[in-house]
Specification:
The chain is built from 20 helices and no strands. With 428 residues, it is mostly helical.
Amino acid sequence: MYILEKFFGNANKKEAISWAFYDFANSAYVLLILTFIFPVYFKEVIVGVEKGDFYWGLIVSGSILIGGLLAPVVGAIADHDTRRKIKLIIFACISMIGGALLFFTGSDTVLFVVLVFMVSNVTFEVAQTLYDSFLARVSTPETVGRISGFAWGLGYIGGVVALLLLKPLYENGYAGDFIFGYKLVFPLTALFFFVFSLPLFLFVKEEVHKRVHISRIVLIQNGFKSVGRTLRDIRKHKQIAWFLLGFYFMNDALVTIFSFIALYARETLFMGFEEILMLLLIIQVIAFPTATIFGFLSDKKGPKKILLFTIAIWIMITILLSLATTKAMFYVIAGLTALVIGSSQSVARSWFSRLVPNDKRFEFFGFNGFASKIAATLGPLLFGTISVMTGNQRIAMAALIPFFLIAFIIFWKMREPKQAATNIDMPL
């Protein structure tokens, strides 16, 4: 009990833990639908192996682009009204329903797959942006890094639980009589997502404001106007603009690796389902304590040092991935990946939470979502295009190294805030 008191400090433990469980919940969607089970099924059953990388990269990029364009507007609308959490719940539930509908897919349902997946992933991305913006609500300036890291680490535990719970359904692949069980993974993943999102839906409260009745049309207009004003006044938020640019490049490479790692392991190193599963389990188990530890260190040492360290490790990982020739080497890379896979994004999330002004918190988190989503439109498409044109996934992987290098340089030149964000931005 004392350890919990020390860890959470003055933050509300119930709300912080309830908020963190959304990471636990959505990790099943990320791992089984975005990373492992559905990508393989999409490539090998729905569109075919020959151009699978390209089409997978295209729909991932397209859905993330749309989500990115919506995020700042939805965030600005959330700053204008008092129904912020309900927006998160609605977008998350639409994503869950879309994930469940993937059960009804097959080799002759390409258009249906594209539509359902894109709606599901777009709403997932918008919900994630709204969720991230609640970080300051459930933490304090002294605990924002550790709570962000704890949530991200808890997400990896959720991934392990989901992988193991549904393993009997996908371990034999999708051939013949196994296809029903394989596709059953999709609605059960959505159910897992819903059940473990309930703590957030039920127990995380919003600040109480006097309710102002504004029509939906006016809210949407205000959202677009607010985004326009923020873009025009970007010089007043120079530090945030540089952060978003650095995050753009870092997240581009990360999303691409996450989207293609299972396909890369399967095709370049000829790994089977069981081997890929073991690889993912190693990453998930190690990632929980490391994400939490790095989050704690970011509170003590500052997020800049920790983020730069993790990006340096990612540069090393990407180089090793492009050179890997044996499965044993791939497992070593998996161990390195586990050290930083959650830490980079969770530390960035806590740093950004310290930067944004409170009166535009949801809108700026929308812009953060916008940067990450727009970033993720280039990487997967680039990887898929290079892979198909050259027939070599190693070259496609190596193309991601410059993204990490640019992000490292940008974050290295930035100053980090010494205290919680105010309405006055810091100079670069």
